[in-house]
Amino acid sequence: MIATNDNDDQTKEESKKERITIVLNEKDLIESFVKGSGNGGQKINKTSNCVDLRHVPTGVRVVCQQTRSLQQNRSIARKIMIEKLDDYYNGDQSKSAIKREIARKREAKRRKRAREKYGATNSKEETSIE
């Protein structure tokens, strides 16, 4: 008698979850402005252009002081918040995780080609390959 595994098909489908599209809701955010520090001169030190953005439901926090402009820092902080929430909710299926995985595979492929071209330099690797 041959048994079929219907459960295996169901678990495969469950493991491929749909990505959640992240939409920032302004009422879930606490935004505060603090004085900046570091490079940028007197303008950075005197004005409150550093954005501290918190997502209340998850507790994710973003601090942005990339430019001297408050409005630019606010938009940059929101973009970073969307990326962090994407990582938080989607995990391995988030855009940044997919980019990291592609870069990791590209690097592994490059290392493999170099090993084939120049040969293994470590004697332990040579014995394990054979």
From TrEMBL:
GO biological process: mitochondrial translation
Localization of this protein: Mitochondrion
Annotated source species: Gigaspora rosea
InterPro entries for this protein: Mito_Transl_Release_Factor, Pep_chain_release_fac_I, Pep_chain_release_fac_I_sf
Protein family membership: Belongs to the prokaryotic/mitochondrial release factor family.
Keyword Ribonucleoprotein: no
Keyword tags: Mitochondrion, Transit peptide
Domain Prokaryotic-type class I peptide chain release factors: start-end pairs: 19-114
Pfam families: RF-1
Ranges of Basic residues composition bias in the record: 106-115
Annotated stretches, region: Disordered: 104-130
Protein name: RF-1 domain-containing protein
GO molecular function: translation release factor activity
Highest taxon of the lineage: Eukaryota
GO annotation, cellular component aspect: mitochondrion
